[in-house]
Amino acid sequence: MKRLAIWLGLAGLGLTTFLIGLVCYFPAAAVIPRLSLFIPSHIQLDWQGIGGTLLDGRVQRLEIAIGNGWPIGVGPIGWHIESPGRLQLALGAPQTAWQLSVQPELGRLAWQVKGGSLAVLDARATPLALQHPLTGRFSGRLQFWTGGGKCLSSQGSLTSPALGMQLPDPVPLGEGLLQLSCDGADAPNWQLALKDGQQLDLALSNEGTQAVLVRGYLSPEHPLTPYWQLLGPDAGSGDIKVRMLP
Question: What is the pTM of this model?
Answer without folding.
Answer: 0.80
